[in-house]
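Re: [help] complex structure
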Amino acid sequence: MTKEPISVGVLFSQTGVTAVMERSMLNATLFSIDEVNQAGGINGRELVPIHFDPGGDPFLYNRLANRLLIESGIRVIFGCYMSSSRKAVLRAVERRNGLLCYPAQYEGFEYSRNAIYCGAAPNQNSTQLAEYLLNHVGQRFYMVGSDYIWPRESDRIMTEMVVTHGGQVADRGYLKLDAPRSAYKKLVADIKRSRPDVIFCNFVGEGIVHFYQEFAEAGLDPKTMPIASLTTSESDIRAMGTEAGAGHITSATYFQAQSSPQNEACMKRYAARFGDDMVTNMCWEAAYFQVKIVAEAMCKSDTDEVDILRPAILGAEFDAPQGRVRIDPDNAHTHVWPKIGRARTDGQFEILSASESAVRPDPYLANYDPNEWGGRLAIRSN
Amino acid sequence: MVSRSPHSPNERSAPILIKDLRNLRVLLLQPKSSEGEELWQHLNRIGCQVQTNWPPPAEIPANTDVVFVFVRPIVEGDIVLNWNADDPPAVLIAIVDYENPIIVEKVLRLRAQAVIGLPLRTFGILANLLLSVNNHRREQRLRLRVERMDAKLKAHRDIDKAKAILMAANNVSEQVAYETLREQAMNKRTTIEAIAMAVITARDLL
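Output below.
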C-alpha cells in the first residue's frame, strides 16, 4: 500500500465579519483531522489539511477553491459558512469535480453532485423554533437580520409559520453585514417602541454581537422579550459577553452542554488540546463530524476520487456529539437532532426541548404546515 | 393535479408557486439511461409526483401536468410521440444532448416550453419547471380568450347582416330591425345571435 498522504482543502475565514464562527469551524476541522491521523489515517495514509483564509470574501473563496483543486490537486474541501461563500465554492467544485463538505445550517433548495450538507435545513431548525416560540413565548414577532439571502429566506419561512398559526409580524429590520454600531442602536430603539413578544434574529458574525449588546444596553429583558435565533451560538455569546446573551433562545442541532457519552468524551479530548476554556457550537460540531464521515468513506473506498468517494459517504452514519447522524442517500443532507436551548449566565445553553429522533432533511420543503408538526417532529419539553 | 380545470374561467391568474410543486404530476418519457435516472431522482427530491414510461404511451394520461421527454431517442428510434402541439394536454419540457438542426427542429415542432440540456445539472430544473407550467397556463388562458372574442366578433357580424336584411325587407329603421330580432329571441328563449343566423339562413333559401 502506498503511504503517500491525502491532502484535503480547508476554507474557513480567520478574518472578516464571520471570523469568530469560522475560526471555531477551522479548529474543529483540524482537530478532527488530527484524530483521524492518530487513529491510523486513511488506511495508513496521512490526511493533510491545506488551509487558506478567504477573509469572508466570496470572490476569494472561489479563487482559493480553484487553487486547491488545480494547483494542489486536492479533491475534497471542508469549508464555508455563509451561503454566498458556499455558492462561490460550488462553482469551482462542480467544474473540477471536487467535493464540498458544508457544515452550516442554511436555507435549503440546493442539491449538487459535488457537495454534502452537514448542517440543518429549515425543516430541522426553523420549524422547531417556530413551534417552541408560538407555544411558549408569544405571537407577535419582530424580524431582524443581516441583509443577504439566508436571513431573508429564513425570515420568509418563519413568517409563513407564524402567520399560519395566527401570529403576526410587527415589523422588520435588516442591516448590511458591515453596518456601523449606531445602526444596531437605532434598530433596538425601534424594537423597544414596537414591544413585540419575540425577536427572530438572523444576524450573522459581528452583527450578532452588536445586536445582543445593544439589546442589553437598552435595558430590554429576555424574560419578557427574548431574542430567538438559528445562528447565535456559544462562540458568539463568548464574543458578546455572557451577560448580553443570557436568557435568549437558539434552535440548533447541537449544544456544547448537552449530555451524551459521545459529546462528553469529545469535549474532554478537545479541552486537552485547546485548554479548559475552549468553546464549541453547532457549526463546530458539524465541521467535526463531517471530517469523520468523509475519512471513514475514504478508508472504505481507499481513494479521494469523488465519483467513488461520494457514494460511500451517502447513507453513512456516525455517532456524532449531537447524536447518531446519517447522510441521506437521496438528497445528501444530514439526518440531525433538533434542539431548543436558552442561554444561561455562564454562556452555555440549557436545553429546553429536544427531538426524540433524528429528523430527516427535506431541503426542498416549501410548505410549513403547523398541523404536521406534532406527528413529524416529536419535540419533547424537558 | 394542479391545473385541475384549465378551461374554467374562474381560475384566473394566480401563479403556480414553489409551494405547489408537490402537487405537480410529472410524466418522464425516457429510455433507461443514467441521466434519466438522475432526473427522476431529482424530480422526486424536489417532491413532484413522478411516473416514468418508455416508449411513450399512445395517449398522455389525463391529469398529467408536465411531460419531460428525451428528444434524441424519439428522433433516432422513429418513435411516435402522440402530441398535439396546437392544443397540448400538458406542459412539455424537452431534454436534449444535441443542439443541431434536426434536434432543435423537433423541439420547435413539439413546441416545448423549456429545454434542459445534457449532461444534466440539477440546478435550474426547479425554476424551469415552474416557469414553463406558468407560461403554459397563461397561454391556455389567452387561447380561451381569443376563442371567445372570435365567437363574439362573428355574432356581431351576423346581427349586422340580419338587421340589414330586415331593414330592406320591411322598410324599417336599424333600431326597429334590432328590436324585432331581440323580441324574437326573447319569445323563443334563445340568443339574438341564433335569431340573426335564422334570418340569414332564411334569406339564403329565398
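The mean pLDDT of chain A is 94.
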